[in-house]
Amino acid sequence: MDLIVRRGRIEGREGLWDVGVAADRIVAVAENISDRAPVELDAAGNLVAPSFVDLHTHLDKALTASHAVAPGQARSLAAMIEELRELKRRFTAEDVRQRAMTVIGMAAARGTGTIRSCVEADPFVELRAVEGMVAARQAAASLCDLQLTATPQEGWFATPGTLEAGSGPFIEQAMARGMDAVGGNVNATLWPSSPEAQVDVIFALARRCDADIDLHLDNADVPDAFTLPYVIEQTIRHGW
């Protein structure tokens, strides 16, 4: 065994237990494991449980409040989007990697073992966030399981004269560079293009890449933004 956690509580069992681990598998649970291991931890009566899972975060934009062009000045959603676009233009792959690693270290120290992070790819940050997060995933392999979603935060299609900036081609390139899931930011109250068309291209790309889909969906408190039923239909249709 490579690791033995001693004197821990286990859900559903009375008393204190030793837990033995070899490689990446639990291989022994007993009141007293007589073997020794290179690493032994004393749980001191605390609960032994699986690590936390962070299902949704944005590591590529983490710890950037101090980088803002005019912090706290934006007073509308459109103004905040424009401010963030200017910020993303200044991102470098190494900057993204360093900030992500800082947050991953904070998360791992507090018991988080799996993180799924959005990674933006678009005309503003281009593929620099993708490059930085791929590097962070490799560097953080001993700390957590890091899953990356290629996220079209700026809208999938390019619609001149609107906020929809055309992330689609960058998302396709991001998937080719090792992202785990195809993201979406489908909001009928923000982008002028058809939400159903956005969902269709997201499913098509996910099928080509044999990848999961991870959507920002219906981010508004009005029924006009309700695209979820169409997503359900397409999920059933494609068996996804």
Model description:
The chain has 6 helices and 9 strands; from the N terminus they run βββββααβαβαβαβα. Helix 2 packs parallel to helix 3 (128-139) and helix 5 (195-209) runs parallel beside helix 6. The model has no long low-confidence stretch (mean pLDDT 94). With 240 residues, it is of the alpha/beta class. It is elongated and about 70 Å long. It has a 5-stranded parallel β-sheet with strand order 5-6-7-8-9.
Please summarize what this structure is:
By secondary structure, this protein is an alpha/beta fold.
Q: How would a crystallographer describe the biggest sheet?
A: 5 strands, parallel
Percent strand: 15-25%
- Described by the principal axes of the CA atoms, the overall outline is elongated
Termini gap: 39 Å
Structural class: alpha/beta
Mean pLDDT: 94
Order of helices and strands: EEEEEHHEHEHEHEH
**Distinct helical segment count:** 6
Helix content: 25-40%
**Low-pLDDT windows of residues:** none
Strand order of the largest sheet: 5-6-7-8-9
Strand tally, please? 9
